[in-house]
């Protein structure tokens, strides 16, 4: 796995050992970033279920101002830290070693915290963690009407999970997974 473009282009990234993380392939990552590249410059990026940190690091490499990485697994946090130092992007990053739900509550409670421009989440498949996380984000100060949320999900996941507070902007399907692009509705139902 490597950084595809930007200041850290071509640098290799470490991934955690074991089956607890599922790195996004370079082809899928490249497609994703081609779709959001115009929104990255000076962006505030939140990487939930961050794994190796590859997605948030790619965002930083391509011009995001800052990224927060949320990951509960200690080995994965060590990889994120190593990858950030290796790419020399660590000064633009914060790593929160905690579960995503605690992190969202913590970040939402900070008076100084403002909305993120892009929130990316890649939770374990088929556990409906994205739905729980989106419910928590719906009323948080981490999201405003311009925030784009990208959910990486199993290709068989139903979109109906997102219909109450979220507009589906677009869905990009791949062989085994998909990216669902969302923004917040003006009024949640």
From TrEMBL:
Tell me where on the tree of life, at the top rank, the source sits.
Answer: Bacteria
Q: Indicate whether Methyltransferase appears among the record's keywords.
A: yes
UniProt keyword list? Methyltransferase, Transferase
Q: Which GO terms describe its molecular function?
A: methyltransferase activity; nucleic acid binding
- Keyword Transferase applies: yes
Q: Name one GO biological process term.
A: rRNA methylation
Cite the Pfam families for this sequence. Cons_hypoth95
InterPro entries registered for this protein in UniProt: DNA_methylase_N6_adenine_CS, RNA_MeTrfase_RsmD, SAM-dependent_MTases_sf
- Which PANTHER family does the entry link to? METHYLTRANSFERASE
| Name of the protein described by the UniProt record | RsmD family RNA methyltransferase
Q: Which organism is it from?
A: Johnsonella ignava ATCC 51276
